[in-house]
Amino acid sequence: MIIVTALQDEKLVTYEKLHCYSFVEKPFDEDGLKEVIEEALAFPGTGNGTKILKFRKESIILAVEKVI
Question: What is the top-level taxon of the source organism (predicted)?
Answer without folding.
Answer: Bacteria
